[in-house]
């Protein structure tokens, strides 16, 4: 197949392809191996779905309804381009007995519109506004997979992970914020086998690009915009300043994170203590770093005596903290792209990193939401988080979750100098480390 993102080769018999994929799906759910005939994008998605604990007989859960859903949609950035989506796709969806769907960056459906009879059929599998259709919740599907891999995706019939979705075919493309590049959500067309045509994939891709262009026109960069510092999940932070994106060195990243949290400023001695664990670093070294940072930022943003920022700099760290403090746990998790500057050893950054991650995981464990716990557990920073896996096993005791928990507990119980070895299923023995 020349394009792995297109579901069917020209001339392929859809009915035969459905049968072949159904057998492949049965093989995977039974023994965990994916036959080579399955497209790589689908095979990788099936594996992610299984690791997240999704079962082939599961269903989507509805998280937002009524006024809560209405308020969330009204504030979402994609609300501004819904008229465009309806203009470009509404007639196509209604005439073709399809559905137009729009989800947020977490795969939560915000709008589902189109042919009335098709909507009634979709209602029976909870393909409705407010339902979570992320990969980690319902497995392989076009809107959820599109935001997971950040690519336009087409999912044909029995390529879907959950069986009740397998009568459907869909194509979706992610939509990005034109200023920051972050994913806002995805636009999707869902219906019958006819949507497996390459044109449907090109169609949603073009609609997504049109939406991004519209968003850029609706919100052009303004000189007075607050600078944005992105430091979560990356060793080198990125600063959006005056319409430019500046990639910072690790040391400059640490300095800006600390100064953004101290609008009153920090003295040279305070910065030295916050940045350097060893006492041999001299004030001259710090002044040289600050001089280089001042040249990078341009005039007016970094002042001295004490060292301080002359304008408010918003950071993704403070956004997550603010959401966590107000009890908006889902929004806090959505904003958490990973540990703060994970490679940094600056004492103050290490303290902040541990406090933020500790606060989030404590809130997740206390709240007990299976989807939020699964998202954390399957992220790189949560793969060995024993307490989170225990909390997940309590609310979603699937075989894969129990097996992973057993492995972690075996590692914890292993004597010094020994490592656990899985002998069968979730059973472990011990072997000496080499």
Layout of helices and strands:
Elements: H1 14-31, H2 40-51, H3 66-75, H4 82-95, E1 99-104, E2 109-114, H5 116-123, H6 135-138, H7 142-149, E3 153-156, E4 169-176, E5 183-191, H8 198-218, E6 228-230, E7 238-241, E8 244-247, H9 250-260, H10 268-275, H11 283-297, E9 302-303, E10 308-309, E11 314-315, H12 316-325, H13 329-335, H14 347-367, H15 370-377, H16 386-395, H17 399-413, E12 418-424, E13 427-432
Parallel strand pairs: 6-11
Antiparallel strand pairs: 1-2, 1-5, 3-4, 4-5, 6-7, 7-8, 9-10, 12-13
Helix pairs in contact: 4-8, 12-13, 12-14, 15-16, 16-17
Overall average residue pLDDT: 87
Q: What is the oligomeric state here?
A: single chain
The radius of gyration is 24 Å
Fourth-tier CATH superfamily name of the largest domain: GAF domain
Class from secondary-structure proportions = alpha+beta
Biggest sheet, in brief?
Answer: 5 strands, antiparallel
Tally of distinct domains: 2
Gross CATH architecture of the largest domain:
2-Layer Sandwich
- Helix and strand string, N-terminal first? HHHHEEHHHEEEHEEEHHHEEEHHHHHHEE
Shape: globular
Fraction of residues in helices? 40-55%
Got a strand count? 13
**How many angstroms separate the termini?**
45 Å
Q: Bin the strand percentage.
A: 5-15%
So how many helices? Answer: 17
CATH topology of the largest domain: Beta-Lactamase
């Amino acid at each position: 197949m020349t394009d792995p993102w297109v579901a069917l080769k020209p001339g392929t018999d859809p009915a035969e392809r459905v049968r072949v994929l159904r057998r492949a799906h049965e093989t995977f759910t039974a023994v965990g191996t994916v036959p080579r005939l399955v497209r790589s994008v689908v095979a990788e998605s099936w594996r992610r779905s299984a690791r997240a604990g999704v079962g082939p007989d599961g269903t989507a859960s509805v998280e937002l309804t009524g006024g809560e859903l209405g308020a969330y949609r009204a504030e979402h950035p994609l609300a501004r381009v819904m008229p465009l989506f309806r203009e470009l796709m509404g007639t196509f969806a209604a005439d073709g007995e399809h559905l137009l769907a729009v989800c947020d960056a977490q795969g939560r459906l915000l709008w589902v519109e189109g042919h009335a009879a098709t909507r009634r059929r979709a209602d029976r599998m909870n393909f409705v506004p407010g339902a979570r259709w992320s990969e980690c919740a319902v497995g392989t599907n076009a809107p959820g997979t599109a935001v997971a891999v950040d690519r336009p995706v087409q999912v044909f019939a029995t390529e879907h992970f959950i069986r009740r979705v397998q009568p459907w075919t869909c194509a979706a493309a992610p939509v990005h914020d034109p200023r920051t590049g972050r994913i806002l959500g995805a636009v999707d067309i869902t219906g019958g086998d006819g949507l497996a045509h390459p044109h449907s994939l090109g169609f949603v891709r073009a609609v997504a690009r049109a939406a991004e262009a519209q968003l850029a026109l609706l919100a052009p960069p303004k000189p007075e915009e607050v600078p944005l510092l992105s430091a979560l999940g990356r060793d080198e932070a990125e600063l959006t300043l005056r319409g430019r994106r500046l990639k910072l060195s690790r040391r400059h990243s640490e300095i800006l994170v600390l100064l953004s949290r101290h609008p009153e400023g920090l003295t040279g001695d305070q910065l030295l203590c916050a940045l350097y664990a060893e006492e041999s670093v001299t004030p001259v070294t710090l002044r040289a770093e600050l001089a280089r940072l001042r040249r990078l930022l341009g005039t007016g943003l970094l002042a001295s005596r004490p060292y301080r920022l002359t304008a408010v700099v918003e950071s993704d760290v403070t956004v997550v903290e603010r959401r966590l403090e107000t009890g908006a746990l889902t929004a806090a998790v959505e904003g958490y792209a990973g540990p703060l500057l994970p490679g940094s050893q600056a004492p103050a950054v290490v303290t902040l990193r541990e406090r933020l991650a500790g606060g989030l995981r404590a809130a997740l464990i206390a709240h007990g939401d299976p989807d939020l716990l699964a998202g954390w557990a399957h992220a790189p920073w949560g793969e060995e988080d024993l307490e989170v896996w225990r909390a997940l096993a309590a609310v979603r005791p699937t075989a894969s979750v129990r097996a992973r928990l057993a492995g972690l507990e075996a590692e914890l119980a292993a004597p010094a100098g020994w490592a656990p070895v899985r002998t069968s299923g979730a059973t472990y023995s011990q072997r000496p480390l080499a």
